[in-house]
Protein 1
Amino acid sequence: MPSGLKTDAVRIPDGSARLDGDLHVPERAIGLVIFAHGSGSSRFSPRNRQVAEALGSVGCATLLLDLLTRDEEAIDIRTREYRFDIQRLARRVVAAADWASGQAALRSLNIGYFGASTGAAAALIAAAERPEISAAVVSRGGRPDLAGDALAAVRAPTLLIVGGDDEQVIELNEEAKRRMQAVVRLEIIPGATHLFEELGALEQVQRLAGDWFAQYLPRHSSRRGPVDMLDGVAPGEA
């Protein structure tokens, strides 16, 4: 995490695979946001880490997760065969949600998802498969269309954020919005392209995402104090 925020290094099982993650839990967390990165990225994505820091400042616990193992990443760099394997990515997001639900220090928190690019589809599928714990979804420059039939099963309020100059992705998000039955809002940031690299664009994403999670994520009856211990966590700084 940037700015010296303390994180815990975690390993999350998905069958025989082990996924590396960075977990940050502020005091009195309002919920947990699981990050699902886009194709060819990882938990070290500077954009997602910047967003995670901003969400932490408004009380969200955050889990930045590698959706591919190290061996899969090495293969994908050469072949790109895993980055568009949406079902595999979605299964890993579900595994992270299940892992969090099994942690004594996290299980009382509702779960939100922040998905970028193809990761948005994985996040939406996870929300559809775990409706009882999934409270909100935010997509940044996402491909929600790749979630397919799962779109209609999503119940979590969903915010779709797209750059105003990302015309093809705008169309894909508009079509996905029409297929969804949950509360859905499409926000278009004028002048922004797919990666939101323009001055101030990512800050707008952070503000919109923070407001969305602050509205929909809290489970007010079970707000909790600081985390003391996480099962299977190796404390450290990331």
Note: The longest strand covers residues 7-14.
Protein 2
Amino acid sequence: MIALSNVRLTLQSQAGAVNILRGVNLSVAPGEVVAVMGPSGAGKTTLLMLLAGLERADSGTVRVAGHYLSSLSEDALAAFRRDNVGIVFQGFHLVPAMTALENAALSLELAGRRDAFDRAEAALAAVGLQDRLDHFPAELSGGEQQRVALARALAPGPRLLLADEPTGNLDGETGARVMDLLFSLSAGTTLVLVTHDAGLAGRCGRVVRLRDGRVTAAGAPSR
């Protein structure tokens, strides 16, 4: 599903060039569940953005779901994301003026899917929000907003699900419920999860550790 070879990425800041990824090699098999851990600034979120085609590597090879992302145009990258990738962000990223149902259907509508609202409603029911379809984000709790974001990511049936600290803005009990849903509903989907939570990483099949833009370790989680 994922094959990165000697991937490097440098971004510009006010202080000058910053080397974010420094020769990353990583393989993830279809259906595998992988946690990415490391200190702040290690390159974890950038790695997810690279896998989603939202950042481009300066060098190296990025192959995801059979696509070499560096060779794709912006339109082709958008189609790649539409057909293959679901993303769950820490900050929910819901549209305030849209209901839960409209938010969950958004990517499907943009893709021109006639069944957008049917699939979105089914996804919201799967995360226990069948009674909150017409509520706006401001009318939902943090946990409910994150469940809407999870439904939005899962509604298209992605081959790859990327989650960036998906419980970082939630209290412990609510975060645990959201993660239970994430693991149960994404069964069979390739999942790459960025987290600082060792307990959460322990539920994954493998842990990849990043430091200073490099993979320093990869293997089974500590039990």
Note: The first helix runs from residue 44 to 51.
